[in-house]
Structures are given as C-alpha cells and as structure tokens.
Amino acid sequence: MIPRSPRLAAVAAALLAGACAIAAAENDGDTATATGESAAAAPATAAASETGKGKDSGGAEPAVLAGSWGQGLYCRKPGADSKWEQYGSGLPQQFITFLTVDSKGTLYCGFDLPGVWRSKDYGLKWERTGANPPAAPSGLAAHPANSDILLVTTWGKGAWWSEDAGRTWVADESPSPFMRKPLAVPGGERPLFYAVVDDGRVFSCRGVRGEWKQVAKFPRGLKVWDLAVKDAGKGTLVAATNAGAALITADGGISYPSLGVSSAFARSVVVDGERVLIGTWGYGVIEWTPKGARFINDGMADMNSFALALISSEAIAKASSSGGSGPASWTAWNNGLQSYKVSSIAYSKTNPQIMYCGTSSGVHRSDDGGRTWKPKVKGLTDQGIYHVAVSPSNSDLVYCCTWNGGVARSNDGGNSWEQVNQGLSLLNVYYVSIDPANPQVLYAMTWGAGVFRSEDGGDSWEDFTGDITSLNGYFVFCAPVTPNPIIASLDNNGIYLLSDGSWVDANKGMNFGWVMDMAQDPLNGKRLIASTAGSGAFISEDGGLSWKQSNDGLTSQNGKGVAFNPGKLGSVYIGTDGGGIFKSVNGGASWSSDNTGLASLKVKEVLVTPAGVAYVATENGIFVKQD
Predict the structure, then answer these.
(1) Mean pLDDT of the chain
(2) Contact 453, 445 (CB under 8 A)
(3) How far is CA 306 from the centre of its chain?
(4) Rounded Cα distance, 84 and 224, in Å
(5) 184 vs 246: CA distance, rounded Å
(6) CA 287 to chain CA mean position, Å
(7) pTM for the predicted model, two decimal places
(8) pLDDT for the residue 431
(9) What's the pLDDT tens digit per position in 506-542?
(10) Comparing 205-219, 241-255, 308-322, which segment has the lowest mean pLDDT?
C-alpha cells in the first residue's frame, strides 16, 4: 500500500511535469472527463466537509491534526509560530491511515489493521466503534447532517455503510474493491460523497447507497490518495497525488498549480478557507495560501503525514487542560517518550496534570496528565534515570538521581538541570525523596555509601546512615499522611524507621530483607504496604512498627511498585517483576491479577492520582487506566 521504490521520485517528477498534457491526451482515450455529479451540486455555503475543513463555529482558526506513519498523532495549534506536538493517547497503533471529524466533533481514525477507532474527547482516549469492516479501512466519511451514518472504504473489499455509528456495516455496490479516502460534502439529507479508486478514477454518489458515477480520471500510473473541497461554490476539488497537489474542476478537468515548493508524494489534504494543507510522504506538511506555499514542520519528528484533519482549537485546548479519567483498561500513553524503558513516574501535588517520568533517555515532562511527553534533559550529565521526585509545593521544582551522576535538580520544570552533589561521597544514587512535612529536607539512598540527607533543598548533603550496617539501599520512603513515618530500605538488612533522629530496626514480622517499595493508605495513615522482591506484600497497621505477610491471590511475589488510590477506600495496586499488576479492593487483604492491556509484565513503579487514574512504569513504556 505504501510505495517505497527508489524509482518513484523520478516517476513522480515526470508526471508532475507533464500531467496536464497527459490528462488531455491519454493514449487509450480516457481523458479527464466529468460523467456524473460534481461539487457544484452542493450549496455554495458548504465551505467545509465532515473532516473539519473550515473555521470553528465561532470563526477561530482551527487546530490541525496530522496522522503519521509510525509516530502516532501530531497537533499544531493556531498561530504563525506554532509547532507540532505529539498528541493524544491510547492509540492501538502508531501507523495512521486516515483521520475524520464528524459534525459533533467525534474523531475517527484508521490504522494499518482491521477496525475503525473513535475518540469522543478530541483524541485523548480511543475506543473501537463495534463491528469491524471486512478489511482494513482506507478512509471514512461521516454524513454531515447525521453523524450516525458513516461511509468507509477498504483496500480489497470496496465501500461499506453504517447507519448506527459503526456498530454494524452493510456492503455497498462499489465501483472497485480497492477504494480510499472518501469525502462528504454537505447537502441536506442527501449529501454528495466522493471516493477514489486505485486506477486513478474519482467517483461521486448522491446520498446513502447512491449510484457511483465517475467524475474524473487521472493519468495511468498516478495514484490519488486523498480529496478535499477547494471551492464548493465552483465545484473545485483538490487532490493529493503522487505527482503533487492537483485541482479538479466541476467538469472533470485536472491541473497542477505551481506552489513554489514540491508537493510530490502528497498523501493527504485539508482545506481551511483560502489555506490548503498538504501532507506528504517523507517531506512533512505544506501550507499553501494565495501568498505562496511553505513547509510547516517545526516539532514534527515523522515527516510521513498520511492523514490530516482540522478540529476546533477551543476543543483541543479544553481537552489538553482537562484532568479526569483514564482508559477502561491498561493503555499505552507513550507519545513523545524517547525511551520506553521507564523506571519512575511522579505527579505534581499542586497540579496532577503535570507529571514527570525517568527513563533510560533522561527525564520527560507531561502537562496533560501523561497523554503526551516532552524530553527534559538539558544539563543532565547522566540520562539513565533511576528515580524522580516533585516538590509537594512547587510543580516546577524537580529532583532526579542516576547511577553515575548523583542527584540533579531543576527549578524550571525540567527545562534545565544542575548537579547538586556537594557532600555526597558516592554518586551511585538509587533513590531521592522529599519530606512532605518540610520540602527543604531531602533523602538520597546510595548503593555503597548508605543514606544521605539534605536540609537545604539539595545544596549540600551529609551522611545520615547512622547505625545502619548495610551501605547498599533501595529507597527512603517519606509518608505524606500523619503520623508521617520515614522508612529506609537496605539490602539484606530490611527496613529502618526514623525515630527521634535515629534509625531503629522495623523488621518485626518481616521475613525478607529486600523491600522494593512502600505505600501509605491516604485514608488511614498508620496502614502501610511494603512490596518485597521474593516474599510478596506485607502490611503494617501501626505505622511501620510491625508487619504481616498478605499474599492471598498474589501469584507473583517478586514485588516492585505499590500505590493506593487516594480517592477510593481499600483500592491498592502492586506491580511485580514478571507477573504484571495485581489489584486489591480490600486494602491488601487479597489480590487479583489486573493485566488486561498491559504489554509488559515487568513493572518498575506504580502510582494513582487523586482523580483515580492509575499509572504503571514498565520496560515497555507507561500504561494507564481509570481505577
């Protein structure tokens, strides 16, 4: 479906140079002719199709969505200096074949696999529409006046109609089994639908299951990939073809306008008033206006723009700032991550939409609750991050630690980092934590030099190991809820509780020495759960003074991260190294496996936000679900 031959560039150039002459004198006599209805039949007021080709209802410039071939969705908000940003979450695949927005703002998306996917929150969460069309869809058009009516084209099985928003599909009498990228033009109850077939012919039909009639034919050997209405009043279409952007007049004539930049290998097109956006294979996106054409690729890492759509900029802004819910089952939210090996994840207590994660390629930040991420590595001397921590009072004050670089601090939300290692005798720092009762107090756990503490926000450190005999440690847990226990976990020596400035043994009932993580019940500050590497879960009901093993249903006992849901009594998650996620609804008394949708069973860390959205850091990225 995707031409990759090195000869294609030469073919496209030749077609571009001679397209008009060929269209007028094709050797088999099939010139570009109009044999059916054209866009001129649509009302002159129909300036936009269902794909969002027009202004917002309030007249504002819309945002642009671009579907890439390998990097998922990108969004470009209005503004001359705007840049593309990776957008959305929960996509089942990153190879996008089409994007369509219906009259109610529902976004439809297709991939290089069977099924049609739909988002009702402007691309933040996705669900399958219902029954799959019989083949992988190549395009979709929504009825402009009735959003329940959908037309989908496929590659090999022709066109199909749905009158129940995609729950069921009925075969159409298609002009070809190989069709792509349908287009709907408003026209009351019987709008005009367009579609293209593999041999370069363009067809239209009036209304649902209308008769398809040929309206234009491109030269032999030229592929047409997408259509949009250029001027509804004049009945002019613009087509994305291998030889560039082409105009189709109401009588079927074809011409190639001079853009000033090459639009060869065009794959997608949308129209916004006098502005035309052309997505290309390998060259990104072109913006064409009466003043000329230019590439608008700032921020776009994948230049294969296989699908374009316009969507309300106000809706995008609202969706990006919304908090709230996550998907119903574990869903990958990895847009923008430079590495999927995620070791740690944290959110801001002052704004849970602001999140940070540590990966093997540095720290990343999200401003939309983890739906999209941006790398934040300037100043980091070591990008192999072990742990991140966010100040409970300042979402821009962040700490991270690494195996060779010690502790780094950012005062500007990750935009720049400085090493803060004065007083550390060893830079192999496994964990950094912040005392919620006094955010100036920090703890650093090293592997080889014990515990260190800072009382000035990391400017200086002092050895705080005390009488602990082991110098290899896993973490220092600073509980956020009264009685605010502070507990250190050491290799082979178990755990120690800070009491009156000294560490005291807190291993009563704990029969295993490798405690990997700990969580405090936010609704009962004396209840703690510890996750161990080999003996599963332990529960303390007295703030860490004594422990009792609790493994009912926990079939994998190589524990890693553990987290309570702060808004749901008794709900707690524990992650394991190889067994995935287990959930308890009774405070840890019993567990059940909860791995639906989880692509990696090697869990590193778990957290749950106040909105009840659970996050899992794994070796294959971040997975999210609504608890």
Answers:
(1) 86
(2) no
(3) 17
(4) 26
(5) 19
(6) 25
(7) 0.55
(8) 97
(9) 999 998 769 999 999 988 889 999 999 999 999 999 9
(10) 308-322
Instruction: Give the length of the chain.
Output: 627
Kind of pairing between the strands at 236-241 and 224-231? antiparallel
User: What tokens appear for 593 in the block?
Assistant: 């496996």
Cβ neighbours of 463 (radius 10 Å): 14
Question: Could you tell me where the DSSP H helices lie in 271-391?
Answer: 313-321
Given a cut of 90, whether residue 10 has pLDDT beyond it is: no
Query: Model confidence over 404-452: pLDDT tens digits?
Result: 999 999 999 999 999 999 999 999 999 999 999 899 999 999 999 999 9
Question: Which residues partner with 63 through β-bridges?
Answer: 311
How far is it, in rounded angstroms, from Cα 512 to Cα 493?
A: 9
Write down the residue that tokens 């080889």 correspond to. 448
Pair of tokens at residue 553: 């249903």
Q: Scan for tokens 């707690």, then name that residue.
A: 572
Phi-psi domain of 584 (left: phi exceeds 0; alpha: psi -120 through 50; beta: other):
beta
> Are 173 and 188 contacting, i.e. CB atoms less than 8 angstroms apart?
no
Domains, the chain, ranges and CATH?
8-320 (2.120.10.30), 332-626 (2.130.10.10)
Q: Which two tokens stand for residue 75?
A: 């969004």
CA atoms within 13 A on the CB side of 381: 14
Under 8 Å between Cβ of 274 and 290? yes
Q: Which two tokens stand for residue 90?
A: 């929960």
Alpha carbons 464 and 262: distance in angstroms, whole number: 65
CA distances from 474 to 121, 446, 505, 526 (A): 40, 8, 16, 22
C-alpha–C-alpha distance, residues 181 and 165, integer Å: 18
Identify the H or E element spanning 321: helix 313-321
